[in-house]
Amino acid sequence: MNTLSAALRKEIKLDAPWSLIEKFAHQHREKPEDANRGAEMIADALDAHGIPVTMYAPELFLSLPGNASVEADGVRYAAKPPAFCASVPEGIEGDLIYVPEASGGTPLDRNPSATSGDVAGKIAVIEGFALPNFVAGLEAAGAAGVIAVNPGEMIHWGTVSTIWGTPEPADLVRLPRIPSAAVNQEDGQKLIALAKSGGRAKIRTELETGWFKQNLPVVEIPGTEIPEEFVLLHGHYDSWREGVGDNGTGNACMLEVARVLWENRDKLKRSVRLAWWAGHSTGRYGGSAWFADTFAIDLSENCVAHMNCDSPGCRWATDYSNISCMSETESLVQKVVADVTGQQAKRKRPQRNSDYTFNNIGISACFMASSMMTEEARAEKGYYVVGGCGGNIAWHTEADTIEIADRDVLAKDIALYLEAVTTVANADVLPVDWRATAAEFAATIAEYQEAAGDRFDLSPATDAIEALSASLDRFHAAIDASKIDAGTANNVLKGLARILVPINYTRGPRFTHDPALNVPPLPAIADAAALDGVPAYKIGFVTTQLLRGRNRVVAALREATRLVDSAL
């Protein structure tokens, strides 16, 4: 156990964070003016402890949901429009078509099975949440609108844009052009039955989409030895209504981490930067994208890792066994979780959400959520899977109020994040292990090659990852034998992130933002695993794409190998 971290954890108090949660329980942070007040409350809480805060005020492109309804068979059903769907106050009417899921899953990862012939010109009724991957596919297939049947009594807010942050001109064509509406399970089942019997419906949606000035508080806690390098701890402060569990508890967690570290800043080697984002839901990560764009060069040159803090400290959330993190940070996460909670954590591949805005720059990351309800606890309460609030189904609803927060769970999560941040900030050699990433790449390439068979050759990628793995083994052995100084080792470790994170998590170039859609491992060559479904006339086009993707992967792996070898 890190002696300093253990000492700092004893300084954790709940007075300040719980006070912020109580204030947030009476403060909506959905509309821009309400969200700005939330940012001011965070700044006031920091100021009360003498912590300097910089308040940025960027103009963000936001979509603010208003009213929505679905009318069918003489009945008007309550509904919510997801952010960025088309605003059609006058409504659109059409035939209903029920689109079942392509495969079993949770409400967060079901994908409708649709073809253009099925849904063209019709209003598709799907089961699950109104999410970008669902709606974009249906819009592309010609649907006139979408009704998402949520899995419970409550209707959940959401967003359906696939654009990450503020769009570039070329992105504007990807803004949703059809209306969407979420309804609850009871009403949704009636609409599904109506769709199956050939009924019609009318969707009305009202949204305000445009540019809004949003506050964005940032704290810099300077290190004493390598102050230019920093760990970035971040989480969004805008919420749907009061949003206590998503993400008032996260804001409170970050506040207490900031307080403890500020009072012990003379003990930090590297700096710690904390940022509270606006535009998370209504801007599709607009605040963090603005920050990444504005400070891209500083992030590229100096950020050693980033950690997302979303929905900690919620009731009944006692499970730390599944934590999102990149492979190179898995051993760090496992150690921190074991030290703080006594549990054994398994790695989950980070999905394309939760303000993981820094993949294209190439920054190692860990955490999205931390504490979650166990599967047994969810089953006992009859809960379905949601994206936050520790698993409480109040997520993205009016029910996300003070009752969702839990003092004991919050205290443990504060300790967890404090331990993780301090461990990285004070490490002589950064606690990232690229051998784990190399092993992940080797397994991914082998899986893709097996699926492709003799239709595409990935052996150049296999050779390149074997060479990198061998160099990494020698590199870490040299570190363990004190044959490489910490400064040289850290430059290599940080440089590897800039090379290897993008090829594992992005398709686009550095300093841009990939769409808000999940990507498979090593996405440039992932289609090698899907050749079975490619018609004969398309094979040549797909293999050409794969050849270019293989070139990207091989070039990156060889660049990484040269970087490692330069330190040996």
From TrEMBL:
<keyword id="KW-0645">Protease</keyword>
<keyword id="KW-0378">Hydrolase</keyword>
<dbReference type="GO" id="GO:0046872">
    <property type="term" value="F:metal ion binding"/>
</dbReference>
<dbReference type="Pfam" id="PF04389">
    <property type="entry name" value="Peptidase_M28"/>
</dbReference>
<dbReference type="InterPro" id="IPR007484">
    <property type="entry name" value="Peptidase_M28"/>
</dbReference>
<dbReference type="InterPro" id="IPR039866">
    <property type="entry name" value="CPQ"/>
</dbReference>
<feature type="domain" description="Peptidase M28">
    <location>
        <begin position="218"/>
        <end position="412"/>
    </location>
</feature>
<keyword id="KW-0482">Metalloprotease</keyword>
<dbReference type="InterPro" id="IPR003137">
    <property type="entry name" value="PA_domain"/>
</dbReference>
<keyword id="KW-0256">Endoplasmic reticulum</keyword>
<keyword id="KW-0732">Signal</keyword>
<keyword id="KW-0333">Golgi apparatus</keyword>
<keyword id="KW-0325">Glycoprotein</keyword>
<dbReference type="GO" id="GO:0070573">
    <property type="term" value="F:metallodipeptidase activity"/>
</dbReference>
<keyword id="KW-0964">Secreted</keyword>
<comment type="subunit">
    <text>Homodimer. The monomeric form is inactive while the homodimer is active.</text>
</comment>
<dbReference type="GO" id="GO:0004180">
    <property type="term" value="F:carboxypeptidase activity"/>
</dbReference>
<feature type="domain" description="PA">
    <location>
        <begin position="93"/>
        <end position="191"/>
    </location>
</feature>
<dbReference type="GO" id="GO:0006508">
    <property type="term" value="P:proteolysis"/>
</dbReference>
<keyword id="KW-0458">Lysosome</keyword>
<protein>
    <recommendedName>
        <fullName>Carboxypeptidase Q</fullName>
    </recommendedName>
</protein>
<dbReference type="InterPro" id="IPR046450">
    <property type="entry name" value="PA_dom_sf"/>
</dbReference>
<keyword id="KW-0865">Zymogen</keyword>
<dbReference type="GO" id="GO:0005576">
    <property type="term" value="C:extracellular region"/>
</dbReference>
<dbReference type="GO" id="GO:0005764">
    <property type="term" value="C:lysosome"/>
</dbReference>
<dbReference type="Pfam" id="PF02225">
    <property type="entry name" value="PA"/>
</dbReference>
<keyword id="KW-0862">Zinc</keyword>
<keyword id="KW-0479">Metal-binding</keyword>
<keyword id="KW-0121">Carboxypeptidase</keyword>
